[in-house]
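Researcher: Here's my situation. A collaborator sent me these components and asked whether they could plausibly form a single complex. I don't have experimental data yet, so a predicted model of the whole assembly would be a useful starting point for our discussion.
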Amino acid sequence: MSGRVVVLTGGVGGAKLAQGLAAILPPRDLTAVVNTGDDFRHFGLAISPDIDTLLYTLSGRSDTLRGWGRAGETWNFMDAARSLSAPDWFALGDGDLALHVLRTDRLACGEPLSSIIADFAGSWGIATKILPMSDDPVATRLETDAGVLDFQDYFVARRCEPRVQTIRFDGAAAARPAPGVIKAIGDARTSAIVIAPSNPYLSIDPILAVPGVAEALRAAKAPVVAVSPIVGGAAVKGPTAKLMAEMGMVVSPAAVAAHYGNLVDAWLVDGRDAGSDFTAPHALADTLMPTLDDKVRVAKAALALAGSLA
Amino acid sequence: MSGRVVVLTGGVGGAKLAQGLAAILPPRDLTAVVNTGDDFRHFGLAISPDIDTLLYTLSGRSDTLRGWGRAGETWNFMDAARSLSAPDWFALGDGDLALHVLRTDRLACGEPLSSIIADFAGSWGIATKILPMSDDPVATRLETDAGVLDFQDYFVARRCEPRVQTIRFDGAAAARPAPGVIKAIGDARTSAIVIAPSNPYLSIDPILAVPGVAEALRAAKAPVVAVSPIVGGAAVKGPTAKLMAEMGMVVSPAAVAAHYGNLVDAWLVDGRDAGSDFTAPHALADTLMPTLDDKVRVAKAALALAGSLA
């Protein structure tokens, strides 16, 4: 198929699919709309975990062995901060700090996040257009049996251990989509919109909570295809399955599909989940992406599925 | 001699003398009043070069081979910042960043610099009381043949190359001495006040420009002794001699003594400058401090000189 592609993505799993899409599309034909609900301040520094994961992945800088952060990272800042009695529950690598320090400085000067990220991506030779879902602050917070928790407190400090009752996106109602988001989704040259296999509740829902985004997806001429984040009845990584169980759902692609409802036109479901109660339009594939070949394969399958709907 | 000691100090040379004094005095009997006129913001981070030099020196963390910064430093932040097109004229080490990031965060929360530095010193087991000259911002600026320059622009970016006409300390008139500064100078238990062989014009003058400090020195019961920053008609390090020549002075201990005037009761002058036109009360010593033994030797000579005046 030809045409531009928009991918909605969160963290590591989504970045893998984005890398696959970037590998097969002409330069500049991919736009990634990225979750910023996990963004937070630590030591006063503005940290955008999902955007940075994508910057590292698409520039070939990600640590694929550890599964997060920057390859060849060192930790002298953390060692020194610890020696100064600073809390060390959130690890900031020495090289990683450059993104946070420069971003914080430029945000303080009034520059919007989207402009800063475009500049970072340009410096690193990334052809994919990386758009934060919004330049306005949106904070994912979890109502749990341990109280209302900030996302990173839940995700990193408490290792997703508290039981989650509700997830909310503080600030979302007043947030505006970042420049280019609505335009990319509705663009006549856009031939496919892909929802990455990121956590639906923590990574994709914040994007959909920004007023105008879900409406634009429903109005888009391009088909919306989603890659299931559930493989063999479990999550590949992270708390998706645990969250679903805690919120009273069966851990299955069908439950995720029901959650997105009519927003998604067709699903790419893992073959391990074939024969389940999945009734929405779908294709089957091996959706695990350990290698670049796998990422390309899943990206092609997602675009083929979109093409079949066109 | 017994009693507490106050040392007025700037960068590396002053830190050497402070280290010598700390080595021979009982814990907590040394107070260092430190120049903050060089403090500045870089990438939005609050940097206090002279205070940090003292923190590194007194905690045994300084890079004595390179002559500045932190031993075992790494530079992954700078490499990453450079890859993001950030200016690299001021080098921030990975470990060094911990001081700047944590300081910036705490200043932004309203904590005064003096309190933050006391906490850092405590974390690193430093018994010397390290006091910034002021918690209020004072900025050393140089009027030069290349225009009015911020200190770090002159000192680092332009390597002290412009010819200096005048040095000013913006903000000094409104600055208050940091808590403890005036008290330490005037304390009945203080038996000596030492002006370190730091640059008189760039490191000591800013301290003296804070209203109340010079007056407290003149009123102090303890003798004020100064260690000459000129050795053999030249500066040991840095732009002292160049500045003196540009401002029309002969590069000699006598010219420095004339600059401080009656603020200083006696001078420790290097033997290489004996027989010069030095008429103020003084003792002679080898004032170079390459080793810890030398630092201790010069510290003892300075205190013996103060003791001889008591």
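Model: Some features of this prediction you could bring to your collaborator: The radius of gyration of chain B is 19 Å. Residues 4-44+128-309 of chain B form a domain with the Rossmann fold fold (CATH 3.40.50.10680).
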